[in-house]
Amino acid sequence: MSRHRPSRSEYSDSSSDNEDDYPSEITPTIEVDTSSLTPLSAQVISKQPFCLGNIGHVAHGKSTIVKAISSVSTVRFQHERVRAITIKLGYANAKIYKCENEVGCPRPGCYRSYRSDKEDSPRCERSGCNSRMKLVRHVSFVDCPGHNILMATMLTGAAVMDAALLLIAGNEPCPQPQTSEHLAAVEIMELDHIIILQNKVDLMEKAQALAHQESISAFVKGTVAESAPIVPVSAQLKHNIDAVNEYIVTRIPIPMRDFVSAPRLIIIRSFDHIEIRPGVMTKDSTGRTHCKPLFSRIVSLHAEANTLQFAVPGGLISVGTSIDPTLCIADRLIGQVLGSVGTLPQIYTELEISLFLLQRLLGVKIADQKQAKVTKLRQTELLLVNIGSACTGGRVLSVNANLARIQLTSPACTKIGEKVTLSRRIEKHWRLVVGRTKFFALDS
Ligand SMILES: Nc1nc2c(ncn2[C@@H]2O[C@H](COP(=O)(O)OP(=O)(O)OP(=O)(O)O)[C@@H](O)[C@H]2O)c(=O)[nH]1
């Protein structure tokens, strides 16, 4: 049973808040029997999803498929609408149901998806059925930008994915640069549950679609997606969405969750409202960085439109706090970590990592179709480092065979063994150069 009601004194060294900022009402104590809780427990699945990444090359239909499954549009910013591309991580939740009329409602039509505020046991909408449907999955789509200059944002999203949908448009040769690069990124994150969606089949003849499917199979051979199903869809016409729902239910196992450890949230978006570490960072006259964690009381918890009384691991959760909005506005807290006071991992400024360079440069088109070889890391070289959802610069202090020591431009709150990706600046953009990286020792 977990039970916790923080006292004001636990937050007394708040850097941004004073006592008056806290809401005056008493927070109710929530009692939860964590020993019997699973991701499929009614009170969990009804409110909280697990995270499904949407990855793939620019304009291959990632946002459109999210809309087709969830009925929620993830493109939410004016400048994204104007340029018709995803720039920030998008998100939308969906509930997937299966009709309980096993005989009269054949697959895959018995699988349906709706917005996440749908009741848990609605009637089947198939004409003449009228049976109840059972809520079988609740997913949170993390919609990644596919543009080649937004790889760092994609890597931030990859840090929270449990599995991924790889979108590949059928009307372009496979693979396109970010098809390869995104697949490599989720491989580094050790995601091994992937469903490939061959999109835009409405633009293709059947023979063309079959030949394209073969090119997809050849591309994923030897990768983590080798045995992934390839589902032909038209996201725009909502064609075959029931089959996608079925694959999400039958091919992606429910992620293992730890319901008893101290809570730790990775921040991937922050708005005006929310112990966050590293917190506020300042430099002294010698250039040394100091970090002052932020403390606040949680004033609300939501999973999209669902109000939560408690939050368990999984899916995207929005946490309302009383932190000074100017510290949270415009995603300023991306990459920081939120948890119970005193339980968060250390803050590090240097990493020692074991690494494997990618053999070939992914994510760029080379004129003669040959991919350039990735050259070794060089001492003093400046790289882009992604750890969890943190994204910062890193200078190579030393490299020795498969070991590198990297000094971070901004400190990161993380733990030993966390997955790290390193990208190098190539033709003005950051490209992934290191795969299967973990750091095993570091200086704080
Ligand atoms: N014909 C057809 N067009 C589609 C389909 N799916 C998406 N599109 C169109 O393809 C364009 C790009 O779709 P998006 O969903 O924005 O692509 P995206 O992968 O999310 O794009 P980025 O996030 O910017 O990488 C839009 O004009 C869509 O209407 C489809 O199944 N068929």
TrEMBL record:
The keyword Membrane does not apply. Pfam families: eIF2_C, GTP_EFTU. GO terms for biological process: formation of translation preinitiation complex. GO terms for cellular component: cytosol; eukaryotic translation initiation factor 2 complex. Residues 47-256 form the Tr-type G domain. Keywords: Elongation factor, GTP-binding, Hydrolase, Initiation factor, Nucleotide-binding, Protein biosynthesis. It catalyses: GTP + H2O = GDP + phosphate + H(+). Coiled coil: none annotated. Residues 1-26 are annotated as: Disordered. One of its GO terms (molecular function) is translation elongation factor activity. Its EC number is 3.6.5.3. It is an enzyme of class 3 (hydrolase). Signal peptide: none annotated. Belongs to the TRAFAC class translation factor GTPase superfamily. Classic translation factor GTPase family. EF-Tu/EF-1A subfamily. This is protein-synthesizing GTPase. It comes from Mycena rosella (Pink bonnet).
